[in-house]
Amino acid sequence: MPGYENVALELARALRVNYAQTGDSVGVNKAISAELSATRTHLQKAAWSNEAHYRKKHHGLNRVGKFFEYYWFCLLDIIWGNGESLLKLLRTLSVIYAAFAIWLFQPGGSVTQTIRDTFLIFWGSYDGSIRRPVLVACAVAARTMLLALFVTVLVRRLSRR
Hints:
The longest helix has 26 residues, at 133-158. The chain has two domains: 5-79, no CATH class; 90-151, no CATH class. With 161 residues, it is mainly alpha-helical. 78% of the residues lie in helices and 0% in strands. It has seven helices and no strands.
């Protein structure tokens, strides 16, 4: 890949399109990885670099915007690998499930009962025995978002084949 991030980013995008048109799904996946890596590097340099090019091009509020853009990119990478990693999405699901179990646990209560109740609430078999409507609403929202992210990862991965 070229040394400049913007050139590497454009080359990776062009390669991704070329690989997709020829039906090479392995090449598409490699091009997407290169594109994500170049994007991360570009956003990081746009936010913090002291190079003259970045200082001249990104200054003032534009640079502050690049900070937020970089952090948003990193957050999405952690949550679901920017749509490319099913394992990261499963890790996020596990963390959210554990957070709900901790939120639901009551001192002196049974851990197995808490895990069962968390499962029932999170996966939609809520029977009304737990009187925490905020917890149920958050679980429904999290479940819906995770399902949407899961479908998106599947569509992105399977549409390349």
